[in-house]
Structures are given as C-alpha cells and as structure tokens.
C-alpha cells in the first residue's frame, strides 16, 4: 500500500458515495447512465471471483464487498425503485453497451497473462472497466446540462484512475519485477477517455458556471 493507491481507493469510494447520496437522498438518477452502472456491476462481479477463496487483508476484502454491493445497489435503484426509476432518461441512455462486452471478452481470451478461468475473467474486467464510462459520457453530451453531483461523480471516477496510474509508476520504480502492462495500457486508455470531460469540468469550475459538454 502506498499513498497513491490509498488516495485512488478513497477517490473511487467517494465517487460511489456521491452517486448513492444523489440517488438515495434526492431520489433521482437524472443524468446517470444505467448502461454504465450495469457495466461496472459486471466489472466487479468478474474481477472479485476470489473474494471467498483468497484472503489478502481485511482492507482488501472490505473494499471488494463495498464496490460489489454498491454497484448492484445502484443498478437496483435505477431499475426497480418506484420513485428513482421515474427520473431515469431511457430515451437518452441508448448506448448499446453490450457491444463493448464481446470485444473485451475476446481480447481477454487472446491477450492475457495466464489461461485460467479466473485470470480470463479478471483480464476481461480490466478491459471492460477501461470503456465502461462511455455510455455515461455519451449521455452527458446528449443532456448537455449536468447537475453538480453527477459531474462530481464522473470527475472522481476519472481522478481515481489517474491516481492509480501514479500508483503503478511508483510501484514500478520501487518494486523489482513489477510489470503489469495489460493493466497499464487499459488504465491509460480509460484515463484518456476522461480528458475531454476534465477540460470542461475545470472550465466550469474556473468560471463558476454550470457544467456543459459539447454535443
């Protein structure tokens, strides 16, 4: 554990808490992509298959349970909660997210570190996480006006991945034989997808204006 990973984990946790705060207290999921939330639920379900078979630390297990529970809770809220689901903009959230799953699975089958079921699923989750934000970004571009909590949620997600890149650089410089190029490439792609959002987020913050993404 180092400061960059801890900061990344806490930023990731903060993003989830911000989204749950919006959904639970305001009873609204306006501007939130169900497609992205379903992809994240799949990411965590396939990545944490070892949660009951392998133990690293209490911290590690706790974080896995939090991300698993929160991701499926958010999907349930948007799909099933009698009030929250009314604010879901199904007509705008039309990104065909299932088109992302098959390429990521095929990529995991052909490009991986070890050919075992858990390793393939873990690699699949890495590839899928890199592109899971796409439906959310497309939805924000379509709706244009973005409320503060949704904007903060997406910003924190991007910041979490950027901090993890610093964590990888730190570990590469301090730990012998620390090479995980699949994770590095996928994480870099994921961070680059946020670049445009970051620009407009900081512009809105600097000008004290409502966040808007170009169509």
How would you characterize this protein structure?
This protein has 215 residues and is mostly helical. The chain has one domain (3-206). Helices cover 70% and strands 0% of the residues. It has helices at residues 3-26, 34-47, 58-80, 98-110, 117-131, 134-143, 148-174, 181-193, 195-206. Helix 2 (34-47) packs antiparallel against helix 5 and helix 7 packs antiparallel against helix 8. The longest helix has 27 residues, at 148-174.
Using the CA coordinates, give the radius of gyration: 17 Å
Count of structural domains: 1
Number of strands: 0
Shape: globular
Helix and strand run: HHHHHHHHH
The first-to-last residue Cα distance is: 41 Å
Described by strand count, sense and barrel closure, the largest sheet is: none
Average pLDDT confidence is 91
- Going by helix content, strand content and strand pairing, the class is mainly alpha
Count helical runs. Answer: 9
Q: Percent helix among the residues? A: over 70%
Could you name the ranges where pLDDT drops below 50 across 5 or more consecutive residues? none
Strand content: under 5%
Protein name: ER lumen protein-retaining receptor
Membrane topology: Multi-pass membrane protein
GO molecular function, one term: ER retention sequence binding
GO cellular component, one term: endoplasmic reticulum membrane
Concise description?
Helix content is 70%, strand content 0%. It is an all-alpha fold and 215 residues long. The chain has one domain.
């Amino acid at each position: 554990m180092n400061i960059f990973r801890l900061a990344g984990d806490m930023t990731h946790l903060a993003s989830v808490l911000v989204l749950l705060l919006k959904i639970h207290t305001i009873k609204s999921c306006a501007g939130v992509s169900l497609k992205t939330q379903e992809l994240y639920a799949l990411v965590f379900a396939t990545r944490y298959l070892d949660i009951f078979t392998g133990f690293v630390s209490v911290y590690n297990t706790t974080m896995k349970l939090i991300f698993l529970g929160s991701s499926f809770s958010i999907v349930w809220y948007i799909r099933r909660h009698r009030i929250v689901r009314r604010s879901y903009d199904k007509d705008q959230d039309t990104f065909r997210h299932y088109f992302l799953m098959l390429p990521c699975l095929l990529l995991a089958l052909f490009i991986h570190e070890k050919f075992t079921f858990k390793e393939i699923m873990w690699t699949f989750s890495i590839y899928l996480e890199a592109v899971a934000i796409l439906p959310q970004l497309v939805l924000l571009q379509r709706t244009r006006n973005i409320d503060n909590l949704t904007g903060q949620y997406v910003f924190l997600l991007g910041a979490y991945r950027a901090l993890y890149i610093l964590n990888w650089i730190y570990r590469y410089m301090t730990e012998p034989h620390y090479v995980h190029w699949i994770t590095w490439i996928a994480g870099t792609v994921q961070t680059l997808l946020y670049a445009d959002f970051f620009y407009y987020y900081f512009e809105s913050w600097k000008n004290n204006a409502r966040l808007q993404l170009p169509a």
